[in-house]
Each structure stands twice: as structure tokens, then as C-alpha cells.
What we know:
Blueprint: H1 9-19, H2 25-28, H3 35-54, H4 59-71, H5 74-87
Helix pairs in contact: 1-3, 1-5
Amino acid sequence: MTAVRRRGVLLQLAAEALASVVPGSSEQLRGDSCAGRAVDRFGPRIIARWIEWLRPQPRAVQVQAIGELADLPVERARELADESLRQS
């Protein structure tokens, strides 16, 4: 498989994993009160989607994608996640 590189790919993949299961997930997952439950409920699906995408990528692309996600400030990650969920 050819490496595909797009900024914020892991966040987009997480949104796609959620949107495929929960209609209106952007509205349902907003707010800190459900954050823990959301991670428990959707974390395995998100990780599975990330692994599916990451496995065939070259090591440099894997490291870059994970580094990008790790470097995102929390507020910016929330904004991007919200945008991604709305698009999915």
C-alpha cells in the first residue's frame, strides 16, 4: 500500500471510527462529563482504526502521525475532532 500523508490523519480516523457507530457523535461527545466513558466505549474502535492505517505506512509516516497528535494542544484537538466528526 502506498503511504498516504495528510495532516491530522489520526484525529480524522478517530472521528471516522466514531461516526460510523454513533450518529450525531459530535453533539453526544461534547463536554468533559462524558470523556472517560467515551474513551472506554470508543477507544478500542479508534485504536483498531489507527492500527489498520498505521501498519502499512513507512516508519517515518507512523512516527510523524503520532508526533502530530501528541503535539496538539487540547483545545485545538477538540476543535479538530469536532470538525472531523461533523464531516464524517
